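Hi everyone,

Forwarding the result from last night's run.
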Amino acid sequence: MKINGNEIRPGNLIEHKGGLWRAVKCQAVKPGKGGAFNQVELKDVRHGTKLNERFRASETVERVRLDQHEYSYLFTENEQATFMDSETFEQITVDLELIGEPAVYLQDGMVVTIESFEGEPLAVTLPEQVVFRIVEADAVVKGQTQSSSYKPAVLENGVRVLVPPHIESGIRIVVNTVEGTYVERAKD
């Protein structure tokens, strides 16, 4: 779909200079001399490089829409995660780099969203919150106030998080997969 250069907004995906770019920041500029333009910071979806471009209202760019499908997580092997489409049972394998830091929160059967362009996976999005059991939690230090202090704890997947003093080993908690932080105690 063609759009004018001044219609580019943050989050838009465009084809530009033979690559696929996501608009990160956009700023409408109206200089004293000359025509107005849209100053856009772009990030290459495949390689992560950044680029600053000026798009005039008269220029057109190709806006791209990604295909989004839900897949269930199966297993990880050799730095690659394998997922299955629950409708077609088709399997897809992606590099853990594509998932990034949240990859440590993958659980058997977890439903994720995979965005792809022309069959090539570009992004994997995990649920925003997941539930894990605490396997190890430090003891509370006497004299610390409950409101201001957190203590380290280890989740069943080996990841360390900070939790409030009342959380002990064996308790299930909700963890934010984007920030890797404690949200609340899970409801059993």
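The CA atoms of residues 3 and 185 lie 46 Å apart.

Cheers,
N.
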